[in-house]
Amino acid sequence: MSQYNIEEEIIEDIAGGEFERTPVPKSNLKGWKSFLGMYAGEHAAGTEFIIGPLFLTAGVSAFDLIIGLLIGNLLAVLCWRFLTAEIAVKYRLTLYYQLEKICGKTLVTGYNLANGILFCFLAGAMITVSATAVGIPFGMEMPKLTDTMPNGPTWVIIVLIIGAVISLIASKGYDTVSKAANWMSPIIVLAFIACGVVALGQLEVHSFSDFWNIWGEGSDPFPGQLKYTFWHVVIWSWFANAAMHIGMSDLSVFRFAKKASSGWTTAAGMYVGHYMAWIAAALLYAVYLKSPEAQAFLTNGEAPPVAPGPLANNAIGIFGIIAVVLAGWTTANPTIYRAGLAFQAIVPKLSTFWVTIIAGTVATIAGLFPAFAMKLLGFVALYGFILAPFGAIIVFEHFFSKNAGIVKNYAETANIKFNKSVFWAWAISFGLFYFISLQFDVFLSFVTLPAWLLCGGLFLLFSKMWQKNV
């Protein structure tokens, strides 16, 4: 055995096999197929069963939805390929360790805590999605769009069981998460296609014009929902995963990639999941809206419930129920894995297994409360807006540090625990644009990019002003 291989084994043993605080060695790099399965599985998944119908409740038109999603998802893929994957293969570090080198241990601890908790809430929404399918045979009452609290003991028991299983899978590490996604994603994709085809038949669609007329020129939003225009769809779909691409969270995933070109595999997630699957799920909801039950809700001035399990079951029966359960798993698994890495950066002495179990426990508790799933459009916009500007710190340092004349990885080089340049860049950009969003009722996703750009620019400016010679 070569000295290089011996060193790799020592590194892997220290890092628990996940290389949380060391660059991923060459022997552990993965080809593009590993990422294709993971992204197709993660993004043709539980969120899609919720988001597709929510677009209908927002009153989108056919053009807004079909063309808006086409453009927004392309912008997201370009960010993954030319920002996230490019930087990931250069340094091969987790987001959390790379930020620690720039920000300092004290500052990054706060970020890691917020990041981990927000990922847990997102995973909790996916546990909610799976629970709506598992609960069907038990006659469980489904959560409504306005529900925030658990609606009964059956709901609680089902969520707890699903959360325990998902947490155990995620705790096995990246390899297990990737394999689970590869196994499940073909089944889920097939289910979405089947749901879409069946729904088209139920809606009596015989031509492209019939399909277009499902959304037509759009409509008024349902009670309590925000009206979405073309730009809402483009910007929201671009930044639905803002924390993962421009926010650099997926450095933790692409650090295992052999080449930056693996970033193109995110297109499988965007166009199979965030395009085909969103539209297929919207078709399921369009079928449900014609039912007497849905019409009764609308007559009473209420938005009909968006429960993925019953919608899929109505279209393709037991296969739909299985697909929804698996769809929740394939999103929650990598999300809990990411959350576990965030918590491990705070308590590095804990093993990957135990921090992931902690993350899974938080996610399961969040899954008990349907509000995270039922308000998913707003929650996703908020969590991207909070986390994405930190990614600008990494991006701007990588591409512009030399021209700006600043020291890279300043916290590590200067041996400081709190880089005030990072803190004030984020605080000013977040505070200013969150105030604008609240004061002038601006859709939060509209200010995510300006906040990201301002944060990166201020970081360079403050670093130039405050960095000392080291």
How can the largest sheet be summarized? none
- Percent helix, as a range, is over 70%
Indicate the low-confidence ranges by residue numbers.
Answer: 1-16
Classified in CATH, the superfamily is: Hydantoin permease
Terminal CA distance reads 40 Å
- CATH overall fold name: Hydantoin permease
> How many structural domains can be distinguished in the coordinates?
1
Mind telling me the C-alpha Rg? 22 Å
Summed over residues and divided by their number, the pLDDT gives a mean of: 84
Supply the helix-strand structural class. mainly alpha
Order of helices and strands: HHHHHHHHHHHHHHHHHHHHH
How does CATH name the architecture? Orthogonal Bundle
What's the overall geometry?
A: globular
The helix count comes to 21
CATH level 1 name: Mainly Alpha
Transmembrane segments: 62-83, 117-140, 152-171, 183-203, 228-247, 268-288, 311-332, 353-373, 379-400, 421-437, 443-462
Protein name: Purine-cytosine permease
GO cellular component, one term: plasma membrane
GO molecular function, one term: cytosine transmembrane transporter activity
Descriptors for this entry?
470 residues, single chain, globular, Hydantoin permease, disordered N terminus, mainly alpha
